[in-house]
Amino acid sequence: MPAVTSRGRGRRTISEINMVPFIDVMLVLLIIFMVTAPLITPSMIALPRVGKAASQPPSPVQILIGKDETIQLKIKTDSVPSNLRNVAADIVRMEPAVKAGAQAVPVVISADKSIKYETVVKVMDSLQRAGVSRVGLSVQTGK
């Protein structure tokens, strides 16, 4: 509520902002930051260096699912037809390095937009059951 002063004939309100509470809060915050700043440990970020990679990353195995749900396996330059039941076994047979853990060859699934998503999930499920650890989905950005 604004203060009211009386001078002579009428009453007039004082419309000033009291800065003392604001300054008190700011000084308390300044003290808190000054005390906690030395306690924060600076973290070091290990940035990658150019030309320090041990080897070239492996080219991914591609699974191409067409409009009529036909499956093509593309490993390096070879393209082999497959079906939904045998897709994981075919990949493991043709490229055993897909089950190598952290250094495994990645598998990328590219599917036509008109097929059911259930087909893609079934392919991913069969790959997971076969022990393939690195599976990804290929996306195409719209223009």
CATH class of the largest domain: Alpha Beta
Outline the biggest β-sheet.
5 strands, mixed
Distance between the termini: 59 Å
What is the global morphology? elongated
Q: What radius of gyration results from the CA coordinates?
A: 33 Å
Quote the average pLDDT. Answer: 83
Q: Trace the largest sheet across and list its strands.
A: 5-4-3-6-7
Number of strands: 7
What portion of the residues fall into strands of 2 or more residues?
Answer: 15-25%
Q: Look up the CATH topology of the largest domain.
A: Nucleotidyltransferase, domain 5
Helix/strand class: alpha/beta
**In percent, how helical is the residue content?**
25-40%
Count helical runs: 3
Under the CATH scheme, the architecture of the largest domain is: 2-Layer Sandwich
The helix-strand sequence is: EEHEEEHEHE
Give the tally of structural domains. 2
Residue ranges: pLDDT <50 for 5 or more in a row?
none
3D structure, described in words:
This protein is an alpha/beta fold. The chain has 2 domains: 3-38, no CATH class; 61-137, 2-Layer Sandwich (Nucleotidyltransferase, domain 5). Helices cover 27% and strands 23% of the residues. The strands form 2 sheets. It has a 5-stranded mixed beta sheet with strand order 5-4-3-6-7, with helices on one face. A two-stranded antiparallel ribbon has the order 1-2. The radius of gyration is 33 Å and the shape is elongated. 10% of the residues are buried. The model has no long low-confidence stretch (mean pLDDT 83).
